[in-house]
Design a protein that fits this description.
single chain, alpha+beta, FomD barrel-like fold, 3 domains, seven-stranded mixed β-barrel, 11 helices, 24 strands
């Protein structure tokens, strides 16, 4: 398998992939320097990119290669999660416009919807229009956004892309020979034109030819799928989907495992990836520390949570969201509160509750004036929330069992592991949602080792309360 890797996890992932005898290609100058070169400029089977929120990675490309890469990384640690995308990059759908919104349209692609920007179509789009669309920017399952679509079909990678426009002409960049495609032994399929990318400048002709052949195979397959599709397809759905996208979410334990892999290659401070995942400013600070400090004992060092929090937040009175991940990939924001206290390892967040309904598992009515006080301790597999009424009387305590908590500058993040422990106002202790955890294991969303850890933590909390 050949992989092109970019983003804040690139060094660690490059080390892990090379150790597993996979080939990393088109390495960035930084990676070239850290590994003393030896990276070919060739086409890749998969592209691995850090997600926009830096919480994980997307693996895009050939289905078999994506599965190989995802399987390798999913076993990194118990709090590593992976999900296959229903709308992978390059997949082609017959879609129906269900509505227009500012800047574009929402398109039903057969039980899944995407966003088609106005700039990605040559015609004005109206509701109920049917059209062929391609996924150009898929989104992870924990994102609130829709995949971005385009009516212009393209395939290829970072050496060459083929554009379907019927012209058969070749597109080149300034300074590149217009007849580059003519110099190769193979041609794009009829109706597709080659667009050569920056990386092609440094590639051998054999690599360019291979990349063009690979893209041409996919272009031909799309042409065949479009030809075979019914002229009047009643329902939106898949036209061509021989590619794949898998999303990997790294938990706190996973990020520290990636630190260990990176540390073999270059100086790496304790919590390198944990800090970089927090914010762009924090990421730049990590680079500075590693460039100027002696980190010989970094493997034994403690993660400097207090220092990071003082520098980048959250601080007292800052707003913090509770980002509640689910094992199936969804993300729910439970609410937003303000920090009332911060110590060397934790922050306390207070929320004003709105009346109506009841508190989960407690069965207690939500009343006006109620507050929820939650203490998030960095790295713990659980966190407690105490509910009080307007007079300060305790109405119940809910202890959520989850993957190790990460307290970032604007949010506390984790993945919920279903099983929880509650303490009612009368002092009664109750353990809940074991069945939901069992179901998540059966569905393949939670590994058995992770589930067993959750059960052990729940038992410990039961005994402690």
């Amino acid at each position: 398998m050949k992989a092109r890797i970019r983003g804040i996890y690139a060094t660690a992932l490059t080390a892990l992939f090379r150790e597993a005898d996979h080939t990393v290609v088109q390495a960035s100058p930084t990676i070239q320097e850290r590994f003393d070169g030896g990276f070919a400029i060739e086409g890749s089977d998969v592209t691995i990119e850090t997600t926009d929120d830096r919480q994980g990675i997307g693996i895009h490309g050939d289905s078999t290669a994506v599965n190989t890469a995802a399987t390798h990384l999913a076993s990194l640690e118990t709090d590593t999660f992976s999900w296959s995308a229903e709308m992978p990059r390059e997949a082609v759908f017959t879609g129906q416009v269900t509505g227009t919104i500012r800047g574009g349209a929402v398109v039903d692609c057969g039980g899944r919807s995407g966003f088609l920007p106005d700039s990605n179509t040559a015609h004005q789009i109206e509701e109920d229009d049917r059209l062929s669309v391609q996924v150009v920017d898929p989104v992870p399952p924990w994102s609130d956004d829709r995949p971005v679509l385009d009516t212009h079909l393209e395939v290829g990678g970072h050496l060459v892309q083929l554009v379907r426009d019927g012209s058969g002409e070749t597109s080149t960049r300034p300074g590149m020979a217009a007849d580059l495609t003519d110099l190769l032994p193979n041609d794009p399929p009829d109706g597709w034109r080659a667009r050569w990318m920056d990386a092609s400048d440094d590639a051998e002709f054999a690599a360019l030819s291979d990349a063009l052949a690979s893209a041409s195979d996919r272009a031909t397959a799309i042409d065949a799928a479009l030809s075979d599709a019914p002229e009047s397809q009643d329902e939106p759905g898949v036209v061509w989907n021989e590619c794949a996208t898998t999303w990997i979410w790294f938990g706190r334990v996973s990020r520290f495992a990636l630190d260990d892999a990176r540390r073999v290659v270059c100086p790496t401070m304790a919590g390198h990836h944990r800090i970089k995942a927090g914010s762009t400013d924090a990421s730049a600070a990590v680079e500075l520390v590693e460039a100027v400090c002696d980190l010989d004992d970094s493997a034994e060092s403690e993660f400097p949570f207090a220092t990071i929090a003082r520098q980048f937040g959250p601080d007292e009175d800052d707003d913090v969201k509770i980002v509640h991940g689910k094992p199936d990939g969804r993300r729910i924001t439970l609410g937003e509160g303000f920090v009332t206290d911060r110590d060397e390892s934790s922050v306390t967040v207070r929320r004003e509750m709105t009346p109506g309904g009841t508190y989960d598992a407690l069965g207690t009515e939500r009343r006006a004036g109620d507050t929820a006080t939650t203490k998030f301790t960095e790295g713990k597999w659980w966190y407690p929330t105490v509910y009080r009424d307007a007079d300060g009387a305790r109405r119940g305590t809910y202890v959520n069992i989850c993957t190790p908590v990460e307290v970032f500058p604007t949010a506390a993040r984790y993945v919920d592991l279903h099983v929880d422990v509650v303490k009612h106002a009368d002092g009664r202790i109750e353990r809940v949602d074991d069945a939901e955890l069992d179901s998540a294991v059966s569905a393949g969303h939670v590994s058995e080792p992770l589930a067993e850890t959750a059960r052990e933590v729940a038992t410990t909390i039961e005994n402690a309360l």
